[in-house]
């Protein structure tokens, strides 16, 4: 099965700690790397992960709080030092161009590649990227500033040919692509060999949803319904629910409630407040609602 796996580079919140780095992660889809947020120290964590800088495809920035974008200029500079020549696309809410472009012009004026910033509307759920492997759709979130999450949906692969059946019916090579795409095969004497007899179904398409930062909201549920993995911020424990509400964040229990309502397969908690030295308090509170819950952690690689 081709790769569809998540690497956690940082899962802390705004205040740096020795336990966690600021938000960043990479989704590897068939060896194309999609970065989601780029907090401070992201490039160092990317190096530690042993992911290849050259395979970095696109960057998605959820919102313009520093713990989600302070790492951009350092990463861009390093990509230039490593000889990148292909354009780098960054998808973001409005405002990043005004912030990042002066830094690029000052620190990276001789860069061998162009940085192109594509703006999306965080109030809409819409497709902002699409290729042969994956579709990326925005998830409107509810934070103190314009903010959106991202839904990555793998493209369904073609059916697998059954070699013995292909050989038995002596099917020409030129017909194989059409059969994989769903066509039946008609023999020279007019007999129809159904597609279902010649192929077996491909593995189900996989999906991943990223929701950070956001206050609790059931409006995200229809968008992320049934995803294989949901990463949802869990900045606070129950005892700090009032703080969560006032700052536009969620508790671990609220993240679990979203996962339960959306019928997701697995929940990963992240964006932990620096006030907790042991995140198991968050895990335990979430598991009371949604048992298939795990904690994010730097260096974690989750295969979907």
TrEMBL record:
The family this protein is said to belong to: Belongs to the RNase Z family.
Alphabetic keyword roster: Endonuclease, Hydrolase, Metal-binding, Nuclease, tRNA processing, Zinc
Gene from which the chain derives: rnz
Active site (record annotation): 67 (proton acceptor)
Function: Zinc phosphodiesterase, which displays some tRNA 3'-processing endonuclease activity. Probably involved in tRNA maturation, by removing a 3'-trailer from precursor tRNA.
Record field: catalytic activity: Endonucleolytic cleavage of RNA, removing extra 3' nucleotides from tRNA precursor, generating 3' termini of tRNAs. A 3'-hydroxy group is left at the tRNA terminus and a 5'-phosphoryl group is left at the trailer molecule
Species, as recorded: Dysgonomonas hofstadii
GO molecular function, one term: 3'-tRNA processing endoribonuclease activity
Binding site for Zn(2+) 2: 67-68, 213, 271
Ranges where the Metallo-beta-lactamase domain occurs: 204-272
Upper classification of the organism: Bacteria, Pseudomonadati, Bacteroidota, Bacteroidia, Bacteroidales
Cofactor remark: Binds 2 Zn(2+) ions.
Entry protein name: Ribonuclease Z
